[in-house]
Specification:
single chain; about 250 residues; alpha+beta; SH3 type barrels; 2 domains; 6-stranded mixed β-sheet; 5 helices
Length: about 250
């Protein structure tokens, strides 16, 4: 009952994505006849109202985190495609051992082959989606690099005071971390699905994840190879006697 109570307390509360951004709020929940939560109704910040299955959500007390649908679909495909391959291979082995008739083999093989073809099409569409997300993240990083340069320039000439500069600097750092984390996730997912589609072993995922997702120290060099962000300088303005100050 405490789990149910906690979920109901989430109504009206913010929903965040995996990278800490608020993307909407919980409007209500859908329950099955036996009282199990099977979906949440979410109003997204763009005005979209959607019913999301609970498997797309991570619940921690009253906090709701929306799991990327791309990652969820990738996990399903990376389970289903190798399973169909193994079933089809087992079917061939049984046929070779004369344990099933040629007619049954052909019927089941055609069924497996048809399902596998559809899954491969779904996987290719997902790869294209991840490529678009990676491109979007890279564009965000490029935009932030210009934001950093303009911030530094305006602060350097005294148009932005130290307090505002530090606030903007910290905001950009946090945004850089989030966008880099999302970009790494999409690169890992794309590589994972691509290797499954090519027939590589699922065990390669861990190697890919280790290579891609180790997050470097966040500096402006992460964006477009711009110079590293300096520590916020201390600016001292000197007013000479008898002269107008700046």
């Amino acid at each position: 009952m405490s789990h149910i109570s906690n979920l109901f307390l989430s109504i009206g509360k913010p929903v965040k994505d995996e990278y800490g951004r608020t993307i909407g709020k919980v409007a209500s929940f859908s329950l099955s006849p036996n009282g199990q939560f099977d979906a949440a109704f979410i109003e997204f910040n763009d005005g979209k109202f959607s019913k999301e299955p609970m498997e797309h959500l991570k619940v921690d007390g009253t906090e709701i985190t929306f799991i990327s649908t791309i990652k969820s679909r990738a996990n399903i495909l990376c389970d289903q495609i190798p399973l169909l391959w193994r079933k089809d291979q087992a079917l061939k082995d049984l046929s070779g051992k004369k344990k099933i008739s040629p007619e049954i083999y052909q019927e089941l093989h055609s069924s497996f082959d048809s399902m596998l073809s559809q899954l491969k099409k779904d996987a290719q569409l997902l790869i294209d989606e991840t490529a678009n997300e990676i491109e979007r993240c890279e564009e965000e990083l490029r935009t932030m690099s210009y934001a950093v340069v303009n911030l530094e320039i305006e602060h350097e000439i005294g148009k932005i005071d130290d307090g505002s500069y530090k606030s903007a600097f910290n905001l950009l750092q946090e945004t850089l971390k989030r966008v880099n984390a999302q970009k790494n996730d999409m690169e890992t997912t794309k590589a994972k699905v691509s290797n499954i589609l090519l027939g590589d072993s699922p065990e390669i995922e861990q190697k890919i994840k280790t290579k891609i997702s180790v997050e470097p120290e966040i500096t402006v060099e992460t964006v477009n190879e711009a110079p590293e962000l300096p520590e916020p300088p201390v600016v001292v303005y000197v007013k000479e006697i008898g002269k107008a100050g700046i």
